[in-house]
Amino acid sequence: MKSGWTGISILFILSIISLALLPFIGMETISVAQIFSDDLQREIFLSIRLPRVLTAFTAGASLALCGLVFQGVLRNPLADPFTLGIASGASFGAAITILTGAAGVAFGLPVTALGALCGAALSFMLVMAFSARVRSGSSNSILLAGIAVSFFFSSLLMFSQYVSSMRESFRIVRWLMGGVEVFGYGQLLTMLPFVVIGVALIIANVTALDHFLTGEDIAQTRGVRVRLSRSLLLAAASVMVGGIVSVCGPIGFVGLMIPHFCRSAFGAGHKILLPACLLAGGIFLTLCDTFARTVIAPTEIPVGVITALLGGPFLIWVLSRQEGR
Amino acid sequence: MTGLDAKNLSFSYNDKPVISGVSFAAAAGETWAVIGRNGAGKSTLLKCLCGLLRYNQGTVSINNTPINKLTPREIALQIAYVPQGANRPVPPFTVREYVLMARYPYSKMGAISTRKDKDAADEALELTDTVHLAGRMMNTLSGGEFQTVLIAGAAAQETPFLLLDEPTTHLDPRHQEDIRRMTARVHERRGAAVITITHDVNFALSTHNNILALIDGRVFFRGTRDEFCAGAVSNLEKIFSVDFRAVDCPGQTTIFAVNHEPCTGGRHRPPAAPDGAPPKITTGASL
Q1: Cβ–Cβ of A214/B98 closer than 8 Å?
Q2: Yes or no, beta carbons of B89 and A222 under 8 Å apart
């Protein structure tokens, strides 16, 4: 336990360092002196780089936490916004708005984001409606339902791309790659309520996540409100995913990889995994995004491409070390 | 009455009745064995008693308070439940962490770390002879060790009622004996009422003062061990539809089921009589 909190402190310091340092790095490195002397550089730093780094950190932290919650509630290491079909529902929602040419802002959200949010909600409800009919303990069937829903929406997405024009099709593909290219703080502020509500609900129910691991029957007879906690946790994670995906698109792999990495480093207790996933997820996506916007600058690679490219081999390395023991 | 009281309890899965009209009461400090065939409704009854299943009809009350008026936490302060140990999720914690987590109903804001909680966990480990396992990860335990740790967790809950679902099934004789001793110890030292589902009739009759027997979801027998033992063999034959024999061993009577058909195949065939007559099986009764 003690070593765990040391690890959290290290992650915390790393987060501060990356948040403080990474906005200076980009196509052109900005120096501290320039922020005070050069108006243009200050503008770039304050309204482009800083919000972008903050958005990446928030998105990464949230996606990692959502993965942790889905995996904990369903007691299945494969659960994440993708395998549960939520990401593909969101993508389809976004594609529909692109295809119909709907534009503008509604309820303070860009219409594409709103479409994504509705798609995420729809697919989540489909999966949950199915899981409510399944006797508890059968997380495999929930995952299978998620995968079925995922394929269903992916096919609809492919169909919509097939019938769309080249230009729309490209916009859809680009959206699907995910990214945190934000300008100013508007999109960050859009995401923030989802994230704050989600994190608060998850913190309130974090003990239940530990108890779920003992099986739902033992958890309940030890006094945990299993059904209530499970619903609140799933709702919280879905709200967060909806908020993040609507702004950043489906950024894959963070929700699957970071919780696994944290578990191998910090053990299975969720009180420590919660801050660990938030910090590690934030650091990871911020680094990936910095990489994405600098490696072949001035061209930016969508960050969703980088997360899987870097995350895939890393996860396999972590897993092989774990299993090899 | 004070205690755990079920009145006219019925439960069905998808319109298929599992238990019907079961009435049963366990007063503080009593020991009950629940026996019956697979599918007779024993586990379902136990789950209804601890609030895991919502019964369709009847009432379950703890010290005169209906169980559906109590929160899971309030129930957890009264009843600890040990499910069947086979095919369970294995929590990725150490034995001590797992046992300490059982203190959840006593915790405030989910924080379990008071001196009292740690003492209760240590006492539960000591009571169940699992102190030597305390630092082990749960996934490194054998089936028998796992089952004893499940009971250690329930003991740490310090409840007046302990419900056990087939605690000795799948275990070797050594671990069966360990389980027998530790449940007896929890009963004696804590004064806890113990309700055990078991298929081991000798375990049922040797360590429990009262017997509840179910046939097809209905009460067949409910009473003291002595009442049951007055016609133990015929009672058991009615419950299980198998012949039973009682054998007097020094110090105790042992009951076992006998096959209708003698074993004619396999390597343990008894030697055939010289005149070709069917092999004679020595049954318990003739010993």
Answers
A1: yes
A2: no
| Tokens read off for A292 | 């994405």
As a whole number of angstroms, the distance between CA A115 and CA A96 comes to: 7
pTM, two decimals, is 0.85
Tell me the C-alpha distance between B59 and A200, whole Å. Answer: 38
B137 shares contact with chain A (CB less than 8 Å)? no
Q: Verify whether the Cβ–Cβ distance A223 to B77 is below 8 Å.
A: yes
**Which residues in chain A are contacts of B98 at CB distance < 8 A?**
214
Distance from CA of A267 to the nearest CA of B (A): 8
Q: Identify the DSSP state of B272.
A: P
**Interface residue B93 vs chain A (CB under 8 A):** yes
Q: Which positions in chain A touch B89 (Cβ < 8 Å)?
A: 75, 213-215
Q: Residue B64, class by beta-carbon neighbours within 10 Å (0-12 exposed, 13-18 middle, 19+ buried)?
A: exposed
Strands B210-215, B31-36: pairing kind = parallel
* A chain contacts of residue B110, beta-carbon cutoff 8 Å: 206-207
- pLDDT in tens for each of the 325 residues of chain A? 446 888 899 999 999 999 888 888 877 777 777 878 888 888 888 888 888 899 999 999 999 999 999 999 888 887 888 788 888 888 888 888 878 776 666 666 677 778 888 888 888 888 878 777 765 546 677 788 888 888 898 898 888 888 888 888 887 887 777 777 777 788 888 888 889 999 999 999 998 999 999 988 899 999 999 888 988 898 888 888 888 887 888 888 888 889 988 988 888 889 899 999 999 999 999 999 888 888 877 777 888 888 888 777 877 887 787 665 4
Closest partner residue to B73 among A217, A223, A268, by Cβ? Answer: A223
ipTM surpasses cut 0.90: no
Put simply, the answer to whether B92 touches A213 (Cβ < 8 Å) is yes
Angstrom CA distances, B97 to A119, A144, B112, B122, B139, stand at 41, 32, 10, 11, 13
How far are the Cα atoms of B76, B238, B266, B271 from residue B262, in angstroms, in the given order? 49, 21, 11, 12
Give backbone dihedrals phi and psi of B258, rounded to 5 degrees, phi first.
-120, 150
Q: How far is A169 from chain B (nearest CA, A)?
A: 45
Chain B residues within 8 A of A75 when measuring between CB atoms: 89
Interchain proximity A206–B110, CB inside 8 Å: yes
Rounded CA separation A209/B180 (Å) = 33
Tokens of A116: 């994504």
